[in-house]
């Protein structure tokens, strides 16, 4: 739960400040009458956009947004929907049953496996299966 809390705090707190400051700089760049001020403000706004992208990557490394917002199974289904080949997901793990760290590990494992299917295999379709055997998830 700690990873989820940290990711949510970063998303709801610092990320919103970055967005707001970027919007302020963009507005200043559009309304400034001095061309130097407008150019400087535009540079700051562009820098804030880059900062925001890096910050989102940081949050995603802690807890990917779909996993944070929706949970493991919907996040895995979203990965499958984004695949360039037909991908089915079969899962028998009730929502909220796994610890946050286990969900994160499973998500990144599935994501990497699907990436490898596209990069390394000549597959025309793929399947993802997540089950529970005893106290342990299996995929």
CATH architecture of the largest domain: 2-Layer Sandwich
Number of helices: 5
End-to-end C-alpha gap: 22 Å
Q: How would you write the strand order of the largest sheet? A: 1-2-3
Uncertain segments: none
CATH topological fold name of the largest domain: Heat Shock Protein 90
* SSE succession: HHHHEHEE
User: How would the global form be characterised?
Assistant: elongated
CATH superfamily of the largest domain: Histidine kinase-like ATPase, C-terminal domain
Largest sheet geometry: 3 strands, mixed
Number of domains: 2
Any idea what the radius of gyration is?
Answer: 20 Å
Would you count the extended β strands for me?
Answer: 3
Going by helix content, strand content and strand pairing, the class is: mainly alpha
Give the rounded overall mean pLDDT.
85
Into which percentage range does the β-strand content fall? 5-15%
**So what's the CATH class of the largest domain?**
Alpha Beta
Helix content: 55-70%
